[in-house]
Amino acid sequence: MPWDAEQVRDEIVRAETLLSDLGSGVEPVAGTHAIEAVQAVVGLYGECLARLLRHIEQAGHPEVLADVARDELVSHLLLVHDLHPVGIEDRIGTALAEVEDAFEPGSLDLLDVQDGVARIRVAVRGCQSTAARMRTSVEEAVMAAAPELESVEIDAAAPQPSTVIPVEDLFATGRLAGER
Asked: How far, in Å, CA of 28 to CA of 22, rounded?
C-alpha cells in the first residue's frame, strides 16, 4: 500500500534524524562507514532514477514524465539528484496558479528567481487577513514546489480598485443628481 503524504513526511524526518546522528556516534570509524554506505546507496538510487527518466523520454511518453514530476515524493528525489524535468520557474508558476485558484485569478506574478530567492508580486483586494493568508499560501506553495529555494520575497502591489460599494455610501442620505 503506498504511503500517504503524512507517512512520507514522517519518514523524511526520521531519515534526516538518523543521518544527522551517524556522524556523532561513539565509534567514529563506524559512523564514517555508515555515512559512506548511505552516500553509495543514494548515488545508486540517483543513477536508477536518471535511467528511468531516460527510458520514459525515449519511449515518447511526456505525460508519464509529467505525472512522475508532479508526485511530491518523487519530485523531491529528482531535485536531490538534480534530475527534475520541470524548470524552477515553471514549477513556481504552477504553484502560483493553484494559489490564485483559491483566492483571486491574476493577482500573482513571478518577478524573478535569483540567488535562491523567488520574488513574487501579490495584488489582493479585500481585508488584510485575506492578504496575509494569501502571502502565507504563496510562500508555502512556492517552497513546496521549489524546495531548493532559500526564501520567497513578497512584493505587495498597490491595492487594486474595488468594485464593492463602500459601506458608508450605502447609508448616505444624499440623493442622486436630478432626484427630488
From this structure: 9
